[in-house]
Design the sequence.
């Protein structure tokens, strides 16, 4: 949008101030060419995103290099410092090559709330360029789930992201993300998916078959399109966070993952786009999920850390009983799909928990709305 072009213009002005040379003129042409190409396109496709970010990276690197070279040349004396060390010589050479600008990426399905914006703020604080995506991914919804009714408010989402300083919003449609989708009902049409073997056997995987294949596939595609240096996700989706860390590691995707804490309402309810489904009565009951998790956390700490520095252990069954008793005390809570005490790195169940901790996660319905939550011990 216009804020992105304004950002680019300011970027050019900065580079001219930092490096008044022919390099600045070339950068100006490169950025203006990119701006014109995007301004006259009806939608930002994946190649346009690639080209834009690549151009910005090149421009920033060139300006920084020109600035550093200018500084080095102005400080040279008739008798420059010297060394016989090859390591020192290598360091002297690399000091003239600036690091490329960092790109922070915040993928979302839209219907943004403060939790999403906290991820954007983390990216804005750490990265030179911030990109966010808005895409309701059909491949992570099973038949009968809420894909068709999932809240969509793209214009409002873009406004919110712009107000937080996001430089670029990628909002593709289904055909752009899944070009072969039109052929899905045809036989013998090859399609590519990313699937972490065994993850459908986790608690959340069993309750939503195929969900994690859809998540792993779309996030891999988005990371390949945006090619960020950093990607930001929320801890609220504990299994998803574990899944994506594994995907990035196993596929050697060159990105640093940041899992940010869950943001909560004043009464403890984890912020979620699906909270919009809750009616007044359901909304009053919904914080019971967090109360149940906190009660289990208090029991864990009182038992495990009551025996000194060495620590003790507590059976997972005791933690489960505490949570289930609290959930079952609320008449609006039903269809408790799972309460699981798992290893934080694998999401595989634990029979007991010690000082190395665990993640407790749960999924249930409050009225007609499926909610998830978790807590890290």
Sequence:
């Amino acid at each position: 949008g216009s804020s992105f072009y304004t950002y680019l213009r300011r970027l050019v002005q900065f580079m001219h101030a930092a490096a008044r040379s022919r390099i600045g003129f070339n950068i100006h042409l490169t950025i203006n060419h990119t701006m014109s190409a995007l301004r006259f396109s009806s939608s930002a496709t994946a190649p346009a995103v690639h080209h834009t970010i690549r151009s910005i990276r090149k421009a920033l690197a060139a300006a920084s290099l020109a600035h550093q070279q200018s500084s080095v040349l102005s400080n040279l004396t008739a008798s420059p410092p010297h060394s016989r060390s090859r390591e020192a010589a290598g360091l002297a050479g690399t000091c003239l090559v600036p690091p490329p600008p960092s790109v922070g990426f915040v993928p979302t399905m839209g219907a943004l709330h403060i939790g999403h914006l906290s991820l954007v703020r983390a990216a804005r604080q750490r990265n030179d360029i911030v990109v966010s995506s808005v895409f309701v991914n059909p491949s992570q919804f099973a038949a009968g789930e809420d894909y068709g009714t999932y809240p969509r408010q793209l214009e409002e989402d873009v406004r919110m992201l712009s107000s937080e300083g996001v430089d670029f919003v990628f909002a593709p449609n289904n055909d752009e993300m899944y070009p072969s989708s039109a052929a899905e009902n045809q036989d013998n049409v090859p399609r590519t998916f990313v699937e972490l073997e065994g993850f459908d056997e986790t608690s959340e995987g069993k309750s939503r078959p195929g969900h994690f294949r859809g998540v792993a596939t779309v996030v891999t595609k988005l990371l390949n399109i945006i090619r960020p240096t950093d990607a930001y996700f929320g801890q609220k989706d504990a299994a998803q966070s574990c899944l994506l860390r594994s995907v990035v590691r196993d596929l050697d995707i060159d990105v640093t993952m940041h899992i940010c804490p869950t943001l909560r309402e004043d009464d403890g309810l984890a912020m979620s786009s699906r909270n919009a489904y809750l009616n007044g009565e359901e909304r009053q009951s919904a914080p019971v999920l967090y109360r149940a998790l906190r009660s289990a956390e208090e029991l864990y700490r009182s038992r495990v850390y009551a025996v000194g520095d060495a620590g003790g252990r507590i059976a997972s069954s005791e933690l489960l009983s505490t949570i289930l008793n609290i959930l079952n005390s609320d008449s609006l809570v039903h269809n408790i799909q799972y309460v699981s005490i798992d290893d934080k790195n694998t999401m595989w169940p634990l029979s007991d928990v010690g000082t190395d901790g665990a993640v407790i996660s749960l999924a249930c319905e409050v009225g007609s709305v499926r909610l998830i939550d978790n807590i890290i011990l």
Remarks:
- The chain is about 45% helix and 15% strand.
